[in-house]
Amino acid sequence: MNILASYNWIKEYLDTDLAPEEFARLTTNSGNSVERTNDLRKTYDKMVVGLVKEVKPHPNADKLRIALTDVGGETVQIVCGGENLADGQRVVVALPGAWVKWHGEGDPVELKKTKIRGEESVGMICAVEEVGFEKIPHGAKDIWDISDLTDAKAGTPIVEALELDDVIFDIEVTTNRPDCKSIIGQAREGSAVTGAKFTWKPSSLDALEALDTLEALRISIKDPDLCLRYDAVKIDGVKVGPSPWWLQKKLLLAGHKPINNIVDVTNYVLHEYGQPLHAFDAEKIEGEQIVVRRAKKGEKIVALDKETYELTGDMLVIADKKNPIAIAGVMGGMDTGTTVSTTSVIIESATFEPVSTRKTSRALNLQSDSSLVFEKGLSTEATGPAMARAIELILELAGGEVASGVYSHESKPYEPLKFSFNPTRAQALIGEDIAESEMLGILKRLGFLMSLKKGKNYEVTVPYWRDHDIENDVDFVEEVARVYGYDKVPSELPVGDLPVQSPDPVLFWERRVKEVLRGAGLLEAYNYAFVSEVQLRAYDIDPEDAVKLMNPLSTDHEYMRPSLMPSLLSTVSANDRQIGEAALFEIAPVYAPQKDDIPLHHMHLVMAVYEKDGYEAFRKAKGLLERLAKELGIRTLRLERKVTDPRWHAGRSAALWIGKHDHVGIIGEVAPATAEKFDIDARVSVIEVNFETLIQHATTAKSYHALPVFPAVKRDLAMVVDDRVEYERLEQEMKKASGLLREVELFDIYRGKGVEEGKKSLAMHLSFRDNDRTLEAEEVDGEMDALRKMLEKSFDGIMRS
Predict the structure, then answer these.
(1) What pTM was estimated for this model as a whole?
(2) Which domains are seen in the chain, by residue range?
(3) What is the C-alpha separation between 658 and 646, in angstroms, rounded?
(4) Band of the pLDDT at 774, cuts 50, 70, 90?
């Protein structure tokens, strides 16, 4: 997460005169990284206050007018389309050479003197979006009338007239440091790294002490496990209206939209203190009571974004007597928001359980500045100072008076964390001889309190704004090291043997399998991890059995794929008309839903061979499987024809087993009905395996077999058998029939002219060998005779010449 931090605002609490560039460098080196800077003096260069002297029609355009504008020392003619343009207005004029966002869109462009519809135009009278203040409420075609914001004379630079002489830092805030997502947190960090004095003091509000005499609000906390702290106060007699420019300006530069003085104060305190607040219109709260409870299943609320959300029983809400009025930690409700007619408000300052807030935000797909901070974890001690500051500002800007005591509830008493700190151990861990006084000074500037115990051990009390991030004493060492500067720690090569990391078996075998399959001529497919409902249903997968995304990029990527098959078949469908036959593979995870947790995932492997006639596809797929098994050292792979899944061809599919107990997948031809759903014309044979189970049996170990001493005798055999005869069984029977037959290599299968329908011709290379002597030709002829007789008897084979 990031924060836009005004350097002027930071310096309200940090006594420094460092140049912005130097401040940014120092804070970045300490881990509080400034990603970008925006020097407003440069941004608004050549933009000045203009005084509109006269507005007259454009002679050649009905929707344009000509404004004679005093820009300081001279009156220039500017063509303008602003509908609210009027004589006497003070406006922002961008002179030639200034850079503006044209209509608030795209990148800034440099203005030049030009003619518009034949009339000379010297510069531009700007709308709010053209100077980067599009969050100021405005009409669609209005220019920015700054008459109420400044009485500066014509020609005054805008940075002076509107007090914009500032530098804005865009700072990356790490997840464990929500305290830095605030101006006060940034000033404190700045003090630590620069040594400058941190001048912030909590709002005292002496009046708060007298509030104890007032009747407290009627508030009930039903779920203290989810609401760790809840503070609230009522203020009557407020007058809701626009905030003064100084407040609006700070919010705009911080990325917030000014709304009204009450809401603006809550956003101001959020940015300044890092503590979210919320303001309710007290008169719209039914029964004059607030209940913090879990939502009732099916309850609905219209949030401030004007959307309706249906709640579930595990979500925390702020409710009145009847209905929810806010989603705790996420967003308030529209019905109890403040408006110009509001005269009484209730200000809430609370701490909600971070995991609950995050789950609610994700479940509703609703995010806010408050939820982003709450879900990181805030201290229960932060609510009081933020509440005091809010009361102070509301009384100043909206008037009224505090009408109740401050209601305050804690789920348990606060106890600050305390750990020991040993400077000598810290020096050893950092590897640098940092003076003890410097280390203690760094910790002190960061807000840690120290008291000396025995020897050189200190007891360090963790300040409340760090109680979610400091977990033990070694964290103090990290704080010292980062502020001292890692660049100051000497670089030394480590001594001794480098640690050896055990290889990840899945990654090792994934690389190996990819090498084997690419070497076998297969193309690797890369598909998205997401599929559509259409793809799931085409492969007969119920979408309820898949993980659905809350915010998919498109309807084509709504679900995390529970199988690689829908993606694979979609890829085949996209290619089979252009490429008549091909073989491809993919290794990737598949995902299964897991109730109230992240999805389970397992690596799977799919290989596909497709071709138009399809006779060879299954044989090629089986050959690929056998080659892969051989390369992986798997010798117990077997096929069982027990596939009843209708998505696979009933007669051309088999289950894959390794040994007796491990079912690893399936090999077979995709059923015609399934192929049709994916609009595939070709016949597709696929191997689908659980990759993690497969590699459990893989090995890199090699076994040695001595080369034969005596030569083999080669013969060829061709025969016609029934089309349903399985080659594997035929080969097994041949080896049983001949004790000298060592290898059988099928090199051709033929169906067609000259072969009866329902039959196939098999051609094989046969290799005969005896381990003790060289075979005679007559012996091999005898073995061939025995094989022919067995094949004719057992398989009704007909020899071919």
Answers:
(1) 0.70
(2) 2-41+167-198 (3.30.56.10), 45-161 (2.40.50.140), 206-410 (3.50.40.10), 418-488 (3.30.56.10), 505-529+560-695 (3.30.930.10), 713-799 (3.30.70.380)
(3) 23
(4) very high
